[in-house]
Amino acid sequence: MIGVPVGRTLHGLLLDQCVGSDQWIGWMTAPECDWAGAFDVLLEPEDEPFDPMCGVVQTWNSVTVRAMPLESVRLLGRLSPHRLAAVRAVQSEYRAAHDVAVPPELGRIALRVVSGAFTVLTGAPLAAQDPRRDYQAIYRRAGSRLSESMGA
Hints:
It is built from two helices and eight strands, in the order ββββββαββα.
């Protein structure tokens, strides 16, 4: 997990994999656990140490950034290969529009099994008139601007 400065704002990213010779794909991170949805992965004590700004991995909010010199980013944490695989599994559920058997509720944290192999903490699904929809729209725009500004 790295912090990438864009102007005066530091954005947290969990990098997943290098594509080509100079681009990385990954996900935006956020600190607001109470706003987590069903496809947000909450980091746990086993993932420490990590900066609190990376407490939630937004698997619905992919970003692509160009490779950058290490001195231009801040290391904010690191996930084990097993935990990274769990994040990928949650993203696969998101892409497949998988139904999550948890009632929609702002602030609800759900312990669930993903792909029959990973136990993860996520938020609850979004309701039709859920304020988390606006929250996600803000982060999607930030992710889009970040990808654009990073030359991806």
